[in-house]
């Protein structure tokens, strides 16, 4: 009896069609530890693929495959926009993070990463934490985002928040002709690891902020932080944050915040925050243009953490990371100007910029192909 279930030629073609934009997809199976993982390498034009590893109890392999293909493609654009020497990749482990984890499982995963010979670097994402990757690190050098004690850069929310503040400066420059943070009003949604630091930065610059969080402690902390400047902080309810009379909405809690319901409420001139996947659909990006609301593409403005992780390969250095994070200001301004010039959305302009960067590198790579090899195994 054959071990391989025969797939019809059409089904086989569908699979290749689904991964047609991707360079490589690796299915990892380890019976001893129960590891079932998929690694997707989308594009390595700019360097080895980089992307976190999710652990989730997916309902099916198809669902896991769809997720890893979509997320790895997103990483290609995120890396190109952040101007780091990495391409896009991602990994998913099919399993329940509460029940199915073990040190051996992550060591097995590390071995699969090692087998890719430096083509794929990974670290934590939803459902995985640094502890898991300390086990994986025993098997491969291709792990990033590790604790400071292991040579990592530490808390990534610090550069992420810095990047958001630089992004808001670029937004203000585009809106008001000056980058000054202090003369505008902001509606900050979420005062977690990133949002709190952004709110602090805005207050330090002398700005007025409306804030909301479901966590009372965070609200209390920001109020205490601003006790010397009465009126600087106004606390509003979770649903009221979208309709505040502020200049910039700063989403730092969760995705999908630009949707049909919120679109009707926005009175702001711009949206610039750290949350991932802020637009519920691409069409919401076009609706923002129609409403005259400037949108900072999330994958650009929140790339400070990625810049830190990519920089780990040169040895952790906080000053260098913050200096690189400053680049978000110029990149975003360029995207805003290009979008205005071409009458396209800022997301379309950002995607175009990334594709141009990859095309330029691709031309250089082919020109020098006989003498220059990609820098796989940077850590050697
Ligand atoms: P976090 O969990 O520390 O903070 C999220 C905050 O949002 C919490 O304080 C939470 O109480 C609050 N919140 C949740 N539901 C809310 C609601 N309905 N109304 C108001 N507040 C609510 O997360 P974080 O690390 O600060 O990340 C914030 C966002 O930025 C996320 O979307 C994350 O994916 C994205 N992001 C974070 C980083 C990073 O380096 N941490 C990097 C890139 C993107």
What is the alpha-carbon Rg in Å?
A: 22 Å
Provide the low-confidence segments as ranges. none
The SSE string, one letter per element, is HEEEEHEHEHHEHEHEEHEHEHHHHH
Distance between the termini: 45 Å
Judged by helices, strands and strand pairing, the structural class is alpha/beta
The DSSP helix count reads 14
Largest sheet: 6 strands, mixed
What is the oligomer described by this structure?
single chain
Which ions and ligands are bound to the chains? Answer: nicotinamide-adenine-dinucleotide
Percentage of residues in strands: 5-15%
Shape: globular
In round numbers, the mean pLDDT is 93
Number of strands: 12
Helix content: 40-55%
InterPro entries: Aminoacid_DH-like_N_sf, Glu/Leu/Phe/Val/Trp_DH, Glu/Leu/Phe/Val/Trp_DH_C, Glu/Leu/Phe/Val/Trp_DH_dimer, Glu/Leu/Phe/Val_DH_AS, Glu/Phe/Leu/Val/Trp_DH_bac/arc, NAD(P)-bd_dom_sf
Family: Belongs to the Glu/Leu/Phe/Val dehydrogenases family.
EC number: 1.4.1.-
Pfam family, one: ELFV_dehydrog_N
What does this structure look like?
- This protein has 380 residues and is an alpha/beta fold.
- Helix content is 43%, strand content 14%.
- It has 14 helices and 12 strands.
- Strands 1, 2, 3, 4, 5 and 6 form a 6-stranded mixed sheet that branches.
- β10, α8 (260-263) and β11 (270-271) form a beta-alpha-beta unit.
- α2 crosses α14 (346-367) and α3 crosses α4 (130-136).
- The longest helix is centred in the first third of the chain and has 22 residues, at 61-82.
- The chain is globular, with a radius of gyration of 22 Å.
- The termini are far apart.
- The mean pLDDT is 93.
- Bound molecules: nicotinamide-adenine-dinucleotide (NAD).
- Nicotinamide-adenine-dinucleotide is lined by residues 156-157, 160, 189-195, 212-215, 218, 238, 252-254, 274-276, 302, 305.
- Nicotinamide-adenine-dinucleotide binds next to α5 and α6.
- InterPro entries: Aminoacid_DH-like_N_sf, Glu/Leu/Phe/Val/Trp_DH, Glu/Leu/Phe/Val/Trp_DH_C, Glu/Leu/Phe/Val/Trp_DH_dimer, Glu/Leu/Phe/Val_DH_AS, Glu/Phe/Leu/Val/Trp_DH_bac/arc, NAD(P)-bd_dom_sf.
- One of its GO terms (molecular function) is oxidoreductase activity.
- Keywords: NAD, Oxidoreductase.
- Its EC number is 1.4.1.-.
- Residues 157-364 form the Glutamate/phenylalanine/leucine/valine/L-tryptophan dehydrogenase C-terminal domain.
């Amino acid at each position: 009896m054959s071990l391989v279930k025969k797939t019809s030629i059409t089904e086989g073609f569908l699979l290749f069609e689904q991964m047609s934009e991707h360079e490589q997809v690796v299915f990892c199976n380890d019976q001893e530890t129960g590891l079932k993982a998929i690694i997707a390498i989308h594009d390595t034009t700019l360097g080895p693929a980089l992307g976190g590893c999710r652990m989730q109890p997916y309902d099916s392999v198809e669902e896991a495959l769809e997720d890893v293909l979509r997320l790895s493609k997103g990483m290609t654009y995120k890396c190109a926009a952040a101007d780091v020497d990495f391409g896009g990749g991602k990994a998913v482990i099919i399993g329940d993070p509460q029940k199915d984890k073990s040190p051996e499982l992550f060591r097995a995963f590390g071995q699969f990463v090692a087998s890719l010979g430096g083509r794929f670097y990974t670290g934590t994402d939803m459902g995985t934490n640094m502890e898991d990757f300390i086990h994986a690190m025993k098997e491969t050098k291709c792990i990033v985002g590790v604790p400071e004690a292991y040579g990592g850069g530490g808390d990534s929310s610090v550069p992420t928040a810095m990047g958001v503040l630089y992004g808001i400066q670029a937004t203000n420059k585009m809106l008001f002709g000056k980058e000054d943070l202090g003369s505008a009003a902001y509606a900050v949604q979420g005062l977690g690891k990133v949002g709190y630091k952004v709110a602090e930065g805005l207050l330090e610059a002398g700005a007025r902020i409306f804030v909301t969080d479901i966590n009372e402690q965070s609200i209390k902390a920001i109020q205490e932080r601003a006790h010397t400047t009465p009126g600087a902080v106004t606390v509003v309810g979770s649903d009221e944050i979208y309709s505040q009379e502020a200049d910039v909405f700063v989403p730092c809690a969760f995705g999908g915040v630009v949707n049909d319901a919120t679109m009707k409420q926005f009175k702001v001139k711009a949206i610039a925050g750290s949350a991932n996947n802020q637009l519920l659909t691409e069409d919401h990006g076009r609706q923002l243009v129609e409403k005259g609301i400037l949108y900072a593409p999330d994958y650009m403005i929140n790339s400070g953490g990625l810049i830190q992780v990519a920089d780990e390969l040169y040895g952790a250095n906080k000053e260098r990371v913050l200096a690189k994070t400053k680049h978000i200001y110029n990149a975003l301004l360029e995207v805003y100007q290009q979008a205005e010039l071409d009458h396209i959305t800022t997301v379309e302009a950002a995607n175009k910029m990334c594709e141009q960067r990859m095309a330029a590198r691709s031309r250089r790579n082919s020109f020098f192909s006989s003498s220059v090899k990609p820098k796989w195994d940077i850590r050697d």
